[in-house]
Amino acid sequence: MKLGIRLAWAALGLAATLSVTGCGDVEERAQVPRVTLVLGAYTTPREAYGEGIIPAFQEYWKTRTGQDVVFRESYQGSGAQARAIVGGFEADVAALSLEADVDKLTEAGLITHDWRAKPHGGMITNSIAVMAVRAGNPKGIRDWADLARPGVEVLTPDPQTSGGAQWNVAALYGAALRGHAGVPADNPQAAFGVLQDVLRNVRIMDKGARESITNFERGVGDVAITYENEVQVAQEAGEDYEYVVPTSTILIENPVAVVDVYADRHGVREVADAFVDFLWRQESQRAFAENGYRPVDPTVAREFASRFPEVQDLWGIDALGGWTQVRAEIFGPRGIFTRAFQELHGS
Predict the structure, then answer these.
(1) By C-alpha distance, which of 312, 323, 162 is closest to 244?
(2) What does pTM read for this prediction?
(3) How many CB atoms are located within 10 Å of the residue 123 CB?
(4) Residue 304: which region, alpha, beta or left (left: phi > 0; alpha: psi -120 to 50)?
(5) Please, are residues 141 and 147 in contact by the beta-carbon 8 Å criterion?
(6) Contact by Cβ (8 Å): 123, 130
(7) pLDDT for 251-273, tens place per residue?
(8) What are phi and psi of 207, to 5 degrees?
(9) Which long-range contacts (CB under 8 A, 24 or more apart) does 2-8 make?
(10) What's the distance, CA 12 to chain centroid?
């Protein structure tokens, strides 16, 4: 997809296309008036949903029930999307970047079921944090430590609004703690220094991962910390840049959940549950893989294995204590990222 098309998606913000469900047999269902199913998602899987998964689900539901389904889609940074849903944006399904943002909906009383009881702990896609670089890698970026060099302009989104930004910071800090960012392992102060040195080189913090990579495509910065899938989608669309897989990086896991209160209020619980379950079907997993995500389905993962380079040291958020601990110790008011940013830029 060319940049202009991707920007057009962003400008649209909400797209229409989904429908209805009731009870009884197919004939009875067909009499139920059309209802809208609202998807509140983070920015990067927009193409996977809009071009592949939603049309496939519409066909699946039509064949199964005789009903048409129409979706309204909203895409923004994961943290901003979670806050919008808590604040009254009545999404029936939340597909967010990280489990901490889904937990916010649970804490607000909007999700009442155990969403982690779904397949793969409620995660529908995986990715990794990588570094997008200009064609030919003119700055010679090879690993995290290179982002701290003087004269290297870095892009990463704002952790206050972007789940991708939180993954980026966690990846950098965790790799430093593991001895893969030019400092000794298990040295929190040295890892803090690496984080601060990289932040010193950050040129701009956009509100979401998609906005950040779009700015990179416009020529801003030398390197962008981003999802692997963002770069793969851009490369397939003809963008002329590359990505570097760090020696050590984090396994990004992306969750989905029905927002119980809103789905029940709108009378769309059955179709919302069906749509969420559809995301683990192999046709959906292939659509995600074709858009650069690492599938959680083992069979599909094997089909697309050649597309995804191996990582020497791949680890999960549990290596940093899990998202509850990370939210407090890295992104909280006295957290590591917060202190590093404030020391550089003030409150």
Answers:
(1) 312
(2) 0.87
(3) 19
(4) alpha
(5) yes
(6) no
(7) 999 999 999 999 999 999 999 99
(8) -80, -20
(9) 2/237, 2/238, 3/214, 3/217, 3/218, 3/237, 3/239, 5/237, 6/47, 6/210, 6/214, 6/237, 7/214
(10) 19
